[in-house]
Amino acid sequence: MTLNPWYILQNESEADSPSLLIYKERVQQNILKMIAIAGSADRLYTHVKTNKMPEIVKMMLEAGISKFKCATIAEAEMAAIAGAKHLIIAHQLVGPKIERLVALCQKYPDVFFASLIDTEAVANDHNRVFEKYGLISNIFVDVNSGMDRSGHPLDDTIFSLYKHLYELSNLKCHGLHVYDGHLRTPDFETRKHEVETGFVDVQHFIESIEEAGLPKPIIIAGGTPTFTSHALHNEIYCSPGTCVLWDWGYGDKLPEQPFEYAALVLTRVISKPKKGIITIDMGHKAVAAENPIDKRIRFLNLENYEFFGQSEEHGVIQVSDWEGIKVGDVLYGVPYHVCPTVNLYDEAYVVENQSITDTWQVLGRKRKITV
């Protein structure tokens, strides 16, 4: 008897479409591989922005991972609901978000929450708001090591910012956050050299902190692309995220990383409007559409095709085997970018032994849970 490929559901008639499928056994294997690369679970600040599900956070907690990064206050609350006790919101929170952070700290007083700072004025705002409530704002300095998306540049003013933080009564600085996600060269040795070269000025900054007699900073560095490079240096905490679910984009770009696809989009053929053309129910609302159309989805059970058209509810594909495809047929696709794809779904089907066994809420996709 020929076994179906790993991704084919035995009970696929129970799955509405389009839908998100989470293959639980593969998630578990990816978590274990992530820990093996880091050398220990304690070195990981796994980013939950990819999965956004309490059940997956619980799986990581059960595997020994105790520290997490988040992108939003809602993601932080989702992780706290799952039982996480050590969380960093990897953003500089401004405006009303400072009060929301206070509310989060008050609602979950046994959880360590921290956020990022790269500007003195924002540090002063945090200090003022947290002082009003009699609380301490835990922070990490966000360092711009070359990505130019956020963070303080590594110039001669960054030390004055760092020193200023120690002068504020209601702030506690724990260390540095250094994200170098722009380094994605496919060849590992080249990428590793780029990572280490980009980290030279960070090391100089760390030395200046220690020479000034300030506490030795915790260093949280990288994301998934540079995970395998930073993992080689024991003094650095690593914060991968995508590898828990994995996707086509990183799978092609990071060949040394051993992770497996654990999240797919299930879609159905809903029309054959013209010879050679099929239409599926997977539009912009079903798969991340921030990349060009040739970098959105890769179908595992379709050959010789071109995905060339997409609108809100429809995807249009040119196929070679038009006669062999029927309306109602199921296609399984790997997202090019899984993180924003997960964010499109309220819930996901959980797959075990090639059957749907449960549904999980994508709770962290909300802008607000309770806080």
TrEMBL record:
* Alphabetical list of CDD domains matching this protein: PLPDE_III_D-TA (cd06821)
Gene3D superfamilies for this protein: Alanine racemase, D-serine dehydratase-like domain
GO biological process per UniProt: D-serine catabolic process
Entry's Gene Ontology molecular function annotations = D-serine ammonia-lyase activity
Pfam families per the UniProt record, alphabetical: Ala_racemase_N (PF01168), D-ser_dehydrat (PF14031)
Q: Where is the D-serine dehydratase-like domain?
A: 262-352
Q: Which InterPro entries match?
A: Ala_racemase_N (IPR001608), D-amino_acid_metab_enzyme (IPR051466), D-ser_dehydrat-like_dom (IPR026956), D-ser_dehydrat-like_sf (IPR042208), PLP-binding_barrel (IPR029066)
Keyword vocabulary terms for this entry = Lyase
Domain of life (superkingdom): Bacteria
Family the entry assigns: Belongs to the DSD1 family.
Annotated PANTHER family: D-SERINE DEHYDRATASE, ZGC:162816-RELATED
Query: What protein am I looking at?
Result: D-TA family PLP-dependent enzyme
Please give the organism.
Answer: Runella rosea
